[in-house]
Design brief:
By secondary structure, this protein is α+β, with helices and mostly antiparallel strands. It has one domain (25-161): Jelly Rolls. It contains two helices and eleven strands; from the N terminus they run αββββββαβββββ. The chain has helices at residues 2-22, 98-103, and strands at 26-30, 34-35, 41-47, 54-57, 70-81, 87-94, 107-112, 121-126, 133-134, 138-145, 151-161. Strands 1, 2, 3, 4, 5, 6, 7, 8, 9, 10 and 11 form an eleven-stranded mixed sheet that branches. A hairpin with a 3-residue loop joins β1 and β2. It is globular. The model has no long low-confidence stretch (mean pLDDT 82).
């Protein structure tokens, strides 16, 4: 009986986390980790490889809301693409260097679906990251494309949590 109760308790805690996530305040950032900024980050690709990392959030940029301990990067809003070629975006997190974080596989990678040639802008992309990052983590972005120096312009949203 105690196994069943423990299992139910675990599921109830997970449902509470999901409910809090879905009904949480989303905070949007522009360049320089400025809340509600319309100044975009520009992420540039290499030639068939990832370009240089761009810091999105530094260790001192969170919490935004007093008392929050953790966060997740919830969505990325792509304002524009430089071309119609396929892109991959990598979001990296960690408390050391970007190189250390990539070596430790602390990242998620996802393709970006480029809209049609006449409309290469305005796309919100849900991200799948580690559930909650410590407030001391830094988050970087990298971009990969078959075209050297291709770029995307973006803003991003986070959720913050007290646990």
């Amino acid at each position: 009986m105690s196994v069943i109760i423990n299992g139910l308790d675990e599921h109830m805690r997970e449902l509470e986390v999901i409910d809090n996530h879905l009904h949480n305040r989303e905070i949007w950032f522009g360049n320089g980790a400025v809340e509600d900024s319309q100044v975009v980050y520009t992420i540039i690709s290499g030639n068939g490889a990832y370009g240089s990392a761009v810091e999105l959030l530094g260790a001192s940029d969170t919490p935004v809301i007093a008392g929050m301990l953790k966060f997740d990067l919830h969505r990325v809003f792509i304002r524009s693409y430089s071309n119609n070629n396929p892109f991959y975006m990598r979001l990296i997190w960690g408390q050391g260097t970007v190189g250390d974080a990539e070596t430790a596989k602390q990242y998620t990678t996802f393709p970006l679906q480029v809209p049609s040639a006449g409309n290469r802008q305005g796309q919100a992309v849900p991200t799948l990251m580690k559930r909650r990052l410590a407030g001391l983590d830094t988050v970087w972005a990298k971009l990969k494309s078959g075209t050297n120096l291709a770029s995307v312009e973006l803003l991003f949203g986070v959720h913050e949590y007290p646990w």
